[in-house]
Amino acid sequence: MVEILFGILLFLGLIWAGYFDLKSREIPDLLSYSIIFGCLGISLIYSLFTSFHFFLFSALGGIIVFCLGYIFYYFKQIGGGDVKIFTAIGIAVSNFYVEKISLLIIFGVLLLIVGGFYSLIWGITLFLKNRKQGFVELKKNLEENKNVRIFLIIFSLILIVIGIIFVDIRWMILLLVVLFYGLFYLNLFVRVIEKLHFIKKIKVSELTEGDWLAKDIMVNNEKLISKKEPELEKKHIALMKKYNIHEVWIRIGIPFVPAILITFLITVVIYGILG
Q1: pLDDT tens-digit series, residues 175-210
Q2: Residue 122 lies in a domain
């Protein structure tokens, strides 16, 4: 029964959060905190009728997920709203298991797979949308990384020779070559997509809390605000206005809540069948 309540709350919350994420790239704090406290409330009420360990495990799951999420947030891989959504999911699923495997771990593994495909599809779509300029930027990046390409060719030839000599590890060598080339070109592809679609200049008056700086803000050759800041806060925006800064470069992330929703639904199906 309690898993149904968690499922309904998270499903409706993720639908609503996904709408805001797609529309404005920003999840309202009221919504994300409501989901968190809703999950905590369900867990607490259920534990009063069963065992308080249920609530403790829920809280522990939320804390662990929050800490992991904050690391990604600090390095600007996900937004603050995403961290709160993940925290709510951690609270909700940490007490459930499939074949003695924590549902939280299953969700995490599925998220890596679903999130990877989701991000790749999103990136390819954006690239094709502006493919003419995209290919120009890709060619430019290839020329700038000419030395890396030469190193890759030499390194690959060495690996191939090793593969010819040691037949038993031939497939491993082939996999390494494909992996190195794949990571190299994927990195170039991501940099092109980021430059064309995820980095833009906007007016300071249009900034909102949670935006990510793409470039340092300098005043008289001194760094006023570092791009390494996890996110912009009210004090940063006020500081820009104080120094009459009119425009800044920000980095925009892809709306990731839809990927979280898809992963959550797959997790629910797995739990329904095997849990």
Answers
A1: 878 878 887 887 788 788 878 878 888 888 888 777
A2: no
Number of compact structural domains in the chain: 3
Kindly state whether residue 95 falls inside one of the protein's structural domains.
yes
Dump pLDDT digits (tens) for 137-160: 888 888 888 888 888 888 888 888
- b/e for 260-274, b at 16 or more Cβ within 10 A? bbbbbebbbebbeee
Q: How far apart are CA 67 and CA 142, in angstroms?
A: 37
Q: Is residue 230 part of a domain?
A: yes
Residues 145 and 239 in one domain: no
What distance lies between CA 187 and its chain's CA centroid? 16
Distance (Å) of CA 68 to CA 83, 218, 222:
9, 32, 33
Look at residues 263, 270, 267, 271 and name the one whose alpha carbon lies nearest to residue 114.
Answer: 263
- Residue range(s) defining the domain that contains residue 259: 2-116+255-274
Is-contact 231 209, C-beta < 8 A? Answer: yes
What is the spatial distance between Cα 56 and Cα 53, in angstroms, rounded to a whole number?
A: 5
Q: Considering the domain boundaries, does residue 134 fall inside one?
A: yes
